Amino acid sequence: MKREHFNSTSGQGRPVPPPCDEDGFLLDSTSWNRRIARDMADLDGIGPLGPDHWAVIHYLREHHQSYASVPPMSQVCRTQHLDRHAVQRLFGGCREAWRIAGLPNPGEEAKAYMI
User: Fold this and answer.
1) 83 burial class (0-12, 13-18, 19+ CB within 10 angstroms)?
2) Which structural domains are found in the chain, ordered by start?
3) pTM of the full predicted structure?
4) Exposure of 42 by Cβ count < 10 A (0-12 exposed, 13-18 middle, 19+ buried)?
């Protein structure tokens, strides 16, 4: 689903997301900021982002910056000292965590593993 931008709000005061591709990934990942992450989480029904959410988000962003790849979620959880189901519990899935982290669409093959 294509989305517009987060800088404004809809008539109901809800945030309007920045331009995204048909899968909901930001078209311009350099436009990401913490407010966009919070707004995306709100729109996705995830609710307020707590310390564990931010730990996962920052790890994903740092890993992507260093390796330009999607890390195994078991690695994310282990390095952040979270239980192995934390990403699922916190975000509803790997794909949602990647999107909220503001990272680009990883491609069809990677998305197939992002359950």
Assistant:
1) exposed
2) 50-113 (1.10.10.370)
3) 0.83
4) middle
Torsion of CA 83, 102, 30, 107, to 10 degrees: 100
Distance between CA atoms of residues 87 and 97, nearest Å: 7
Residue 109 or 17, more confident: 109
CA–CA separation, 92 and 2 (whole Å): 21
Judged by phi (left if over 0) then psi (alpha if -120 to 50, else beta), residue 106 lies in alpha
Q: How far apart are CA 1 and CA 43, in angstroms?
A: 13
86-99 tens-digit pLDDT: 999 999 999 999 99
In DSSP terms, which residues pair with 20 in a beta bridge?
26
pLDDT at 17 over 70: no
Given this model, what pLDDT does residue 8 score?
41
